[in-house]
Amino acid sequence: MATYRDPMLKLFSASGNLPLAEAIADHIGCSLGACEVSTFSDGEIWVRIDESVRGCDVFVIQPTSAPVNDNLMQLLIMEDALKRASAARINVVMPYYGYARQDRKARARDPITAKLTANLIETAGADRMIAMDLHAGQIQGFFNIPVDHLMAAPILAEYFLSKHLPNPVVVSPDMGGVARARDLAERLGAPIAIVDKRRPAPNVAEVMHVVGEIEGRTAIMVDDIIDTAGTICEGAKALIENGARKVYACCTHPVLSGPAIRRLQEAPIEEVVVTDTIFLPPQRRIDKIQVLSVAALIGDAIVRVHENASVSHLFEG
Description:
single chain, alpha/beta, 7-stranded mixed sheet, 5-stranded parallel sheet, 14 strands, about 25% strand, globular
């Protein structure tokens, strides 16, 4: 492993996804900074930074996946500790942005919690944000600091190209994901299709019909998040009923809450390809699930931000 020699670059991680943070540090060629994160008996979170960060360019790696509120508080408290320790710049690296789906007022008197979360992160001391596949691109505008928005599409595309799937078609599980499906389809040189569905209640998806040519093709369903897996699994059934030869599914963020694992086991899906933005314990890594790492992508972005180089260059070509 090559060693990154600039001592002013420092990486820290709370407990949200320590394996990913270690992989990022290994890719860059440095070690994670020394810190302690613990919880008092009354539930309060305590953070201590155990090395000097004065004048340093600090990157805090912390997704806000489950337990969402604990991970968010760990991040905010660590930012505060670093700010009070005179870090020159605090860069929040959030592989998964919790509360991102609460990004607008769907009904009267609804909160916009994605904006509230952005306010908290800024107020705690963040000077910059690096995020992976935000649920809604406009969340970047919720911040008054620079946001670098990384995409997992190149990683997913490289994996599916290596499989040489016959006659592929990329499928968006809803109308809102068409841009994401088109991006992956262009990288694979494949057409797109759309599952047109109605959602009668939260976490309940009712498939209506499939728009596009599916019969005899290998379908690749793509989404940013798989949560309870209802959308993906109902979509897979609809694709098979419409003549798809096989169905694969992929996403950036494997939330996989509630009945998700059981549903994926039972669904007519050959493989579920996800990334490691959210840590999956061994007992949840069923045979159908293939985990790809985003450590190299995030590591390269961190180095580019630190060196004031272009991050968008990572996605060119």
